[in-house]
Each structure stands twice: as C-alpha cells, then as structure tokens.
Amino acid sequence: MQNKLRGMGVALVTPFKQDGDIDFDALKRLVEYQITNGTDYLVVLGTTAETPTLTEEEKEAVIQTVVSTVHGRVPLVLGMGGNNTQSLVNKIRTSDFNGIDALLSVTPYYNKPSQEGLYRHYEAIAKASKLPIILYNVPGRTGVNMLPETTLRLAHDFSNIVAIKEASGNFTQIDDIIKNKPERFSVISGDDGITYPLLTLGAVGVISVIGNAFPYEFSRMVRLALNGDYQHALLIHHQFTELIKLLFVEGNPAGVKSMLAAMGFIENRLRLPLVPTTITTYEKIRRVLDQLDIKA
Question: What proportion of the chain, given as a percentage, has pLDDT over 90?
C-alpha cells in the first residue's frame, strides 16, 4: 500500500450543473484528465468534493462513476469519516468497497474529543475495516488537533493504519511524526502550499487540491523532490505559490472551482452553504493563469 500512496493524489471536486445537479460528464472528463496527466491516485468524496452537501444516493453515484471511469488504472481512496463512531463503524462494515483501495478518515469534528477519544475512535475503525486506513488531521476544519503521540500510537498499534494526511500546518508536529513513525507508515501533505518543504523532510507526497487543475505540473514537482532533484522541484513550487494563495483565500473548493471554470472544465457552481469566489478573486485567478509559464 505504501507505494500506492507515494506521489500526488488529487482530492476530486464534484462538478455541478447550473441547475445544481451533479455533472457526471464533467466528472468523467476530469478523471480522465487526471489519469492522462500523471496523477498517482485519486481521492473520492473528500473535503474538496463538498461531500456534506451530497445525498447518500449522490455519494454512491459519484463513487460508481469514478470507479467505472478509472477502471483500475490508478488507486482510489474513499473519504469516509464522521463524528459518530458507531455509525461510521456500521457503515464501514456494511459498505461495498469494490474498486476502492483505502479509506481516508478525518478526525471527528464539532464534538472535540480528547486525545484518548481520538485513539479509541480510530481503534474502532481499524478493527472494523478490511481496507487500509489513512488518518486525516485538519484542525482548522475539525476544531481538534491530533497530537503526534496519538498518531504514532495508532501507527504502531494497528497495521492497517498505513498513513496520515497531515494538514495541521505545524512543521514541528509533522516532523515529529516523520522522525518517529514505523517504516511502513507514510506521512502525506494535506496542504499544497507546504508540500515542497514537507517532501524534503520525508513526506511521501500530497493529497492535492491544485492538482485538479494542474496534475501534470504539480505531480512533476512531487516526483522531482522524491527523486532528490530539489532544485527543479523548487522552481515549480515557486511558480505556484501565488496561485495556491488565491485558491484558499475564500475557502476550498471555491478557489479551485473558479480556476477549473476559468480553464473551461466545469461550471463555477457550488452548493450552499458554500458560494463561488467573488468576481475580484476570480479575475485575479484568471490573470495568474494567463501569466503562468511552467517550464521547469
């Protein structure tokens, strides 16, 4: 599983039509665009997919669309998290994971469990799941930060907990995990903007947002760094720093959907409570796209 999570994964957006329905044709085109341009694996129904706004029927339709379109060409990771442990465990036990290679499970949000509560939550998931599990720590969204000692305890105690997507932004914390983790456990960047420095510390890749729009260029940056060519990787990293800032200034996935719309891939449509970026941000994104010259 370690090799399957090496490189650039992309957290797919969910394209919507102007009437608000899911645009499955656009989703298929986006998946093909990813595969033909070097994305190493895809993440379905993550944060970037606006998953909380999808019905259960829509989620299943998205999964089946991506699974059938990918047809085994790249690994697939399914986002499956929640703040009701027993409900999540029941869902894991009863779901059909045909075509799915691993689960990405975010720390419980809103109810703010203690570190022991986080450990027991993931312990229950690990015991229920036949698939490998990627932990997901994103305290800016969940309201709770999983500390390195909890992550490392889980990594050592459960062989099917194989990685963590770390989006705390805390370099000391992430480096502590990289330094003390078991060899079979991987650390994945959860933040495009700090992926390059994390790769130099020993992260194995990124689950990317900007990769939706620039899979070839961003996956190339990741591969160059993983192969020790930090000089050329840094050039690509610097070419994207301004655009990455614009992507998140009004939240995710509003920024990347504005970018994909400007590139002609999808409609610039989100579901409430999320809304598209302002015209000002959209025009800034368009200007940077026009100026971007990627030739590292």
Answer: 94
CATH code (residue 152)? 3.20.20.70
246 lies in a domain?
no
Within 10 A of 187 (CB to CB), how many other CB atoms are there? 24
Domain coverage including residue 14: 3-229
Please give the model's pTM, rounded to 2 decimal places. Answer: 0.95
CB contact at 8 A, 244 and 192? yes
Task: Name the β-bridge partners of 104.
Answer: 79, 134
Residue 283 lies in a domain: no
Q: Categorize the per-residue pLDDT at 2 as very low, low, confident or very high, splitting at 50, 70 and 90.
A: low
Number of domains in the chain: 1
Q: Say whether pLDDT at 293 is over 70.
A: no
Q: Which position among 33, 41, 119, 165 bears the catalytic label?
A: 165
Residue type present at position 16:
F
Q: Report CA torsion sign: 66, 39, 241, 213.
A: negative
Band the pLDDT of 295: cuts 50, 70, 90.
Answer: very low
Active-site residue, selected from the candidate residues 33, 122, 136, 282: 136
* Residue 148 maps to a domain: yes
198-252: per-residue pLDDT in tens? Answer: 999 999 999 999 999 999 999 999 999 999 999 999 999 999 999 999 999 999 9
Q: Is there a domain that residue 237 lies in?
A: no
Is 41 catalytic? The answer is no
Q: Is 165 a catalytic residue?
A: yes
Residues 78, 80: Cα–Cα separation, whole Å: 6
**In the structure encoding, which two tokens stand for residue 63, read together?**
């999964």
